[in-house]
């Protein structure tokens, strides 16, 4: 009886974690050229300038190139940037290249999304 229940729960776990089919639209955004992306890569200095200019809200993606969840989220972040173009600014900060800015923003885990707007 215990073995049957264990097998049943294993099958349930396998069925519960089957990946969803990926659409062609998502796949294309993985291979876009850097200059066609709306979410631009910024340095700490560029981010400082962006934080002084409040023409639109800012969504900041703090990521690292070695971070698996960051890589999985990148196409969705770019899709949101494409969809909200002109209404919201999107930027990406590589926390490995700009550790000082990541520290100033109190980023403790990756990926981190910051939604910044002027009050």
Spell the H/E element sequence: HHEHEHEHE
Mean pLDDT: 79
Helix content: 40-55%
Q: Show unreliable segments.
A: 1-32
Number of helices: 5
Through-space gap between termini: 62 Å
Biggest sheet strand order reads: 1-3-2-4
Compute the gyration radius: what is it? Answer: 19 Å
Q: In what range is the share of β-strand residues?
A: 15-25%
Number of strands: 4
Major sheet: 4 strands, mixed
Structural class: alpha/beta
| Shape verdict | globular
Question: Can you tell me about this structure?
Answer:
With 119 residues, the chain is α/β, with parallel strands linked by helices. It has helices at 2-16, 24-30, 44-52, 68-83, 99-104, and strands at residues 40-42, 58-63, 89-94, 112-116. Strands 1-3-2-4 form a 4-stranded mixed sheet, sandwiched between helices. The model is unreliable at 1-32 (pLDDT under 50).
């Amino acid at each position: 009886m215990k073995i049957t229940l264990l097998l049943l729960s294993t099958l349930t776990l396998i069925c519960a974690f089957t990946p969803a089919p990926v659409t062609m639209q998502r796949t294309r955004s993985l291979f876009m050229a850097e200059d066609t992306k709306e979410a631009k890569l910024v340095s700490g200095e560029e981010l400082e300038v962006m934080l002084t200019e409040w023409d639109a809200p800012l969504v900041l993606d703090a990521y690292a190139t070695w971070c698996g969840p960051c890589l999985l989220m990148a196409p969705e972040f770019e899709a949101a940037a494409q969809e909200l173009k002109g209404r919201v600014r999107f930027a990406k900060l590589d926390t490995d290249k700009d550790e000082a800015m990541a520290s100033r923003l109190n980023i403790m885990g990756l990926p981190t999304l910051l939604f910044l707007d002027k009050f």
